[in-house]
Amino acid sequence: MPAGNLRELRHSDLPDALALSRLAGWNQTKDDWELLLRLDPQGCFGIEVEGRVVATTTLLCYGPQLAWIGMVLTKPDHRHMGFARRLMQAALERSARLKIPSVKLDATPDGQPLYEKLGFTTEQIVERWFRDASQVQKGETLSSDGPPAAVSKEMDREAFGADRSEVLHGLAERNPPVATPAAFSFSRAGSRSRYLGPCVAADQQTARAVVEQTLRASPESSWYWDILAANEKAVALAQDFGFVRQRRLERMFFGGYLVTNDQLVYAIAGFELG
């Protein structure tokens, strides 16, 4: 079997990349892959074998403070060949060249042993919650002039620990968020279920309001909602809205610890986005 050529992903590789995420049963769409490639093309890596991309990893830089690793995927018949390790090392080398002090990712049980060997440490637990399609009545929506207004942008930086305004802008181009001065909630289409997040709010009451309006906008959809387990108020909201806990990942970091305010985070942006 050829060793494989590690290189940056190109737009022409998107069909192969999308096929990898679908083989894994992940929720990303072509739009999600395009957003990653557009935001940080030099951070999107793949390994090519016989003209096809068979493994991927992405590194998304949030200013000088944080880099996020995602989309660590390998085609089943090319696993156990060291491709994921090579791609992870390429991502970490790039973050080192850029002198980014903290690198994070959300680890599946399959990926966690590799990340630990590379020096990642578990920070906290992320839980995926799911709700099947239901007959929620559509209602009057809140203002969605974000994302987000100045107050919400400041709050997002406090919550996430770094500036992700470019990511929020890219998500808003696809689907504007429900937003108030004290909260915002995004959603987007997925290959398996509609995705709720990111959602940042000053308190549970304002989070409930924007999440409810977000869910009402697509009453025919099933939903994924990824939550930091430490935010008990977010967990309680998910239960109130009829979601059930489906899976668990570990949020891990490499390098310096980044200060965040997890109690403001009612939904993450995605395993590939943070």
Compile the SSE list and pairings.
Blueprint: E1 5-8, H1 14-23, H2 30-39, E2 44-49, E3 52-62, E4 66-74, H3 83-97, E5 102-107, H4 112-117, E6 121-131, H5 150-160, H6 165-174, E7 178-180, E8 183-188, E9 194-201, H7 204-216, E10 223-228, H8 232-240, E11 244-255, E12 265-267
Parallel strand pairs: 4-5, 9-10
Antiparallel strand pairs: 1-2, 2-3, 3-4, 5-11, 6-10, 6-11, 7-8, 8-9, 9-12
Structure description:
With 274 residues, the chain is α+β, with helices and mostly antiparallel strands. The protein has two domains: 5-100, Gcn5-related N-acetyltransferase (GNAT) (Aminopeptidase); 128-250 and 257-267, 3-Layer(aba) Sandwich (Aminopeptidase), CATH 3.40.630. It has eight helices and twelve strands. It has helices at 14-23, 30-39, 83-97, 112-117, 150-160, 165-174, 204-216, 232-240; strands at residues 5-8, 44-49, 52-62, 66-74, 102-107, 121-131, 178-180, 183-188, 194-201, 223-228, 244-255, 265-267. The relative contact order is 0.17.
